[in-house]
Amino acid sequence: MNDSPIRTQLLQSGSKELLITSVDVRGDGNLPLLPAAMKAVFNELAPYAKNKRGVTYVRDFPERAISKTQPGSWARNDHEFDISLPDWQADPKKIVEVFAAEMHHLVRYQTVGVPKTLGDTLALEATARAYAASLSGLTVPWTKGPVSQQAYDQAKKDWSRRDYDHQAWFLKGPLGKWIGYRIAHRLGKEFFRNGFDLQTSLSVRTAVFKKLLP
Known about the structure:
Elements: E1 6-13, E2 16-23, H1 37-45, E3 53-60, E4 72-75, E5 80-85, H2 92-111, H3 118-136, H4 149-158, H5 166-170, E6 172-173, E7 176-177, H6 179-191, H7 198-201, H8 206-210
Parallel strand pairs: 2-3, 3-5
Antiparallel strand pairs: 1-2, 4-5, 6-7
Helix pairs in contact: 1-2, 2-3, 3-6
């Protein structure tokens, strides 16, 4: 534990660095060390990163967690991302899973590019969640549930749209809650059906995934 409301930790692998800033938002003085497995994730992804330095912010911020029970996250750009925990007692496996997904986002932003279309975002999520699941063994709740043929058909229509409604696709909309994450999860499972490959996940192009839509 740590009495300070802020803790910083620098991960290094070769010439690459990631600064992790943990903030005790609720101020209860309960700021434990983050899971050591996060270092292994960084070491695995660092060789593919183009940027020399990245930053992540970890907070006990249940209002930004998923349903206030699962770690939430957001890759802001190609060098920084946030993780919001429901509290500091969150399951270490869940912390590693979300860290792996966001770290993968960060590196894929640098290798393939920041998503511009619905298809880009589905490909981003498909590859990141496949990577995170390969490490943690977890399938996060927002990727579970049925996907209608109507949703698949709409994804095909909207695939190249830059003005797609992100909230409707990835949070809640007429096609269902978290439908974009559900589609991406299925695309990732199909693409990596013969086993996950990290290098491929960081280079495969968006168009490959459109061909996998039923």
